[in-house]
Amino acid sequence: MIAGEVNELTIENGAPAKDDIVSIFTRRTATPRRVALIGGFAPRKCGIATFTTDIFEQLTRYHPNIGLDVWAVDDPAAPLSYERTRGTIRADRPEDYIGAAEAMNAEGVDAVWLQHEYGIFSGESGEMILELVDRVAAPLIVTLHTVLMHPSDRQRSILDRLVGRASRVMVMSRQARDTLIEHYGASPERVAVIAHGAPDRPFGREEEFKARMGLAGRRVLMTFGLLGPGKGLETMIAALPAIVAEHSDVVYRIVGATHPNLVAVEGEAYRERLQALADELGVADHVMWDNRFLETPDLLDQLEACDIYVTPYPNLQQSTSGTLSYAVALGKAVVATPYVHAVELHDDGVGVLVEPQSPPALASAINELLSDPALLAATRERAYAVGRTTIWPRFADAGAALIESVVARATSGTRLLDIAPGFDAVLAMSDSTGIYQHAIGVVPDRRHGYCIDDNARALMLTNVAARAHPEHAKRLAVTYASFVQHAWNPDRRAFRNFMAFDRTWCEDVGSEDSNGRTLWALGETAIKAPDSDIREWARGCFDDVLTSFDRIDSPRAVAFAMLGCCARLKGEPDHAGALALLERGGMLLCHLLASGRRPDWAWFEAVLAYDNPRLPQALLEAGMYLERAEWITAGIETLDWIAQRQVSATGNFRPVGSEGFGQAYDQLPFDQQPLEPWAAIDASAAAHAATGDRRWLAHARLAYAWFFGANDRGTVLADLASGRCRDGLMPHGANRNCGAESILAFHLAHYALAALERSGKESPREIDVRGDRFGPGTRSVAENLAHP
Questions:
Q1: Among the residues of 465-575, which ranges form H helices?
Q2: Model confidence at 82: pLDDT above 70
Q3: Which label site among 93, 305, 504, 768 has the fewest CB atoms less than 10 Å from its CB?
Q4: Domain 414-786 CATH (choose: 1.50.10.10, 3.60.10.10, 3.40.50.80, 3.90.1150.10)
């Protein structure tokens, strides 16, 4: 099995499980964390802004070791100035989302915590947030404030993307969690329920606060929030005549400003319609209006003065209500329609549920509570008890635990560079035909058959693994060579690539890249194979197919072919065909570099893809062989450029992600694949040979450490004992499959680094993979590798 997976954290009933609290807050309290917090923020007046501000204030208060960089999402219709923030994201500006993500990556935050509600981001259903989500490299936490049972197609696709990219998803109700799992396919272990936080105030001070507000002797009902049709206030006003008929001392307090979006459309017309309704029903004297957006202390004072808190929402998909959480925490009886949050609180006995949009049902429930003081008192006491589990210290503990559960940490264990990876994984993926392409988990998947790409790499592995695994390498070399030989299509003068499990070819000609990679393997085998007969076969095959490469001009195919020619020339320095291809390839790469260069883009193309360091490596090796100083200079410059783009702000290797392949002048952090660190090691070896600069040795070690947890998720991908390697690093951790490409890239990376260490006159040494990146007195795996 692959060792060293980061354990998930259990969060129960809104708080971390007891054992997790002990683990986190006794052993890690002093560990500093830096988190980018994204959402609306004060002074913006909306529920998301209030919640984001609460997270900032409560975590700062109770967990000062967590530094929060707030990125405030600003409403373009009502722009504001913000304090205590790292930056502002204008909701309608894609460049702001991209710039914020780039800043988070550059600053090396430990996690990104996004507050998501469709309406606060621009684009269809708030789709612009994906510009940021797709680019952040740190583990992503997403708080979903709305989980729709019946979303639109675009809402569904956005939520699917968010759930797919998040390391953890936080919701505030059990029903929201169930919906995510059952209807959106979310992994249960990645969905945490943390109840909305609430203040901690003494119980039973209604009369004191009523007196302060001139409400002494009154029965006080209350609804709070930004006014709009979604609050159901019409229903409550319509219920008042029946309530006042039994309890003439009742007053209904409607506290809150009209929603700014509604004011922009119709001014105060909605509030005026409600006031007209109260007049028409003869209860205007029993309705009190407080047209303000209250700061939290004022809101809590208002809540303390009420007896029953009423939320007659018509939208039953409302997953959470911050003011309802506040009311319960202060020990208020609740009368509500059966929306999600209210239903779960009702299960705990804190109030009464009523039919939506039914004034008689509302009036009946409220009258029953007001007419039975003992029932009202018992309901309030139960509410206060439930509220103890959600008060801010408990919420802050759960939030800190959630952050800690996703922070990337190098896992425990020691790896030795002079211990060769086991060959079990290679053997399991191989049969008498060749090496399979893919696996499901660790089990070979025969449905996808074989490809020459992987068999060429496997042939290269037998050249360098022969000393560590002589019997297996010798036998498998013949198998892989036979596959390569059979793949050649003499009629088309090209190699085929894909073969089905039944040994039928799926095509007549493979891609240029697969052909270039095969020539590279032949060149390497011609000089490195321990079996002289295999070397002779490789030389003959190389020479036979070489002329067909005159027409190949794909940059990576050319680079692969050039590397094969460099190897072939080591055995036959005057090989005319290899020299000609080397000359043509070097000229082509230099021409591409001149054409593609921009002030901030020192690269051969406008895009990045896989095996990026192979292009500078080819220029370096060709430049050294042909004594072309300008090629060496270009190779070092471009390798330095791509190396910088593939190291995170925290010093870990961060391969260009496959999701960004083909995007002009851009790169995305996921999915990260093992080909890239292997290519970085090989290219670093070429740069070290050309310059003697030891920083390339350090960069190669950094790339190798990626396999063992020095990466954006602290996830170990490779296992020396079995020789397995996961297929890559995804936003929420490792791809559990172990296909041929990944296994071979890991093995070849190991042997490449071992050879580089020897060439650098350093004996193979222990690589320590342990400790926290920021732990006092410890060094990261990357630091241990770079600074022996």
A1: 470-487, 512-528, 532-545, 555-571
A2: yes
A3: 504
A4: 1.50.10.10
